[in-house]
Design a protein that fits this description.
The chain has one domain (37-225). It has 3 helices and 12 strands. The chain has helices at 2-9, 111-123, 139-149, and strands at residues 36-43, 53-60, 68-72, 84-87, 101-107, 172-173, 181-185, 189-194, 198-203, 206-211, 216-219, 223-225. Helix 2 (111-123) crosses helix 3 (139-149).
Amino acid sequence: MILALVGACTTTRDWRNASSEPAGLAPDPVSEREALVQVYAARTWGWRGWFGVHTWVAVKPTDAGAYKVYEVIGWRLRSGRSAVTVSERHPDARWFGNLPELIAEKRGTGVDAIIERIDKAAAAYPYADRYTAWPGPNSNTFTAWVLRAVPELRADLPPTAIGKDYLGEGVVSSAPSGSGHQFSLLGLLGIAASSVEGLEVNVLGLTFGINPFDPSLKLPLVGRIGPERQVDTGVVAQ
């Protein structure tokens, strides 16, 4: 598995020609009228893909004809723009050719209110003018920031989402899912425990863990090992 991953990430593909085609994981917004929130992760481009993923949050309010995608893109800072971007694109598009994985989804009653909270959390992200691939703040720091504002999503980010444990000057918070508890020193050393993530230990930005609630082993590079992830697509409890 590791050799296959390394081979995929060391390809000579040109990033400018990499596919951004949708993977078929998101409903057609024209025919799907319900409000919808989805969380995705995909391996990053190039050698960084050996170690980590890029994550993002996609939303579609009730009766909206298109999705909005919230994510952080570090290169935007080179032109003096915010690293936070909100765009209309396919929520399940390949990330520079790499297939995304659906991490969490909620739809229907109560989701419009969640979308409003996601928008407010994105606007309040404290590191919009900073980006550091390791240990953060980066795209996964942003997604974790948003998820802490909407724990109803119960999103268990992959162990390869380096940066999700970065808390800036803080050391104690909820786990990235917004549930449980986390202790972290600059995203380099810490521990998190919750009913969503299970138990995770972070060493130099690398996550080791076990999740008895969604049976799986969590390892650096490889990611999550276990049965296929069970994504709860049910409506939000009122």
